[in-house]
Design a protein that fits this description.
two-stranded antiparallel ribbon; HAD-SF_hydro_IA; hydrolase; 12 helices; alpha/beta; PGP-like_dom2; about 210 residues; Rossmann fold; HAD-like_sf; hydrolase activity
């Protein structure tokens, strides 16, 4: 960031969903799949990125069935698609502590949008279980639906154009440094979120 935020400095707010709006823990999925947790769970899941399967799943180019087949192969599982889907959706913990009142507060004054790397199975799950939280957003830009994902620059360009507001007037919240940096390179004002306190602090700076 090169400048500090000030009241009135934004015309729209753009939120990542995972670990910004909805909390998740990959270990919950691996536990549900009965995968040994002794090693780094992220290292285990990295196996799914072989041949770009996971990224293609998140951009809508791989079906649930194809993804679950890759899971079975990568992790040596014999679970059915239904069992894998149940475990895959067990990743969600609940809403991020403190985020609901902040979204309600912000939505009263500015349009809210979401940009998230996700997949069809997760979309079906969180659309149902977190409907009251997601109602604050005018539009959800979900990677498997728009066919592109963060941190690719074209993703931010697509969303900025769809929102119809200059990028420097959009404040973007994401938990991953690489996504924040990529957003800044595309002209957005981006905030890395470690907890809802970072969102609250930004809303205060904006006078919301």
């Amino acid at each position: 960031m090169t400048t500090a935020l000030a009241p009135g400095a934004a015309d729209a707010l753009l939120f990542d969903l995972g670990r910004v709006v909805i909390d998740y823990d990959l270990r919950r999925t691996l536990k549900a799949w009965a995968v040994e947790l002794g090693s780094d769970p992220h290292a285990l899941m990295a196996k799914l990125a072989q041949n770009d399967t996971f990224h293609r799943y998140e951009t809508g180019h791989v079906t649930d069935a194809e993804f679950f087949a890759a899971v079975r192969t990568a992790l040596g599982l014999t679970l059915t698609d239904a069992q894998l889907r149940e475990g895959w959706n067990a990743i969600f913990i609940g809403e991020m502590p403190g985020i609901a009142p902040l979204l309600d507060r912000a939505a009263k004054q500015l349009p809210l949008y979401a940009l998230s790397n996700t997949n069809d199975s997760h979309i079906a799950h969180f659309s149902e279980h977190y409907a009251e939280l997601l109602v604050h957003f005018r539009e959800l830009f979900l990677s498997s639906r728009i066919g592109m994902r963060k941190p690719n620059g074209e993703t931010y360009d697509f969303v900025v154009k769809a929102i119809g507001i200059a990028p420097q007037r959009i404040v973007f919240f994401d938990d991953l440094a690489e996504n924040v940096e990529a957003a800044r390179e595309r002209g957005l004002y981006a905030v890395q979120v470690h907890s809802s306190d970072d969102v609250a602090r930004t809303l205060d700076q904006l006078g919301l």
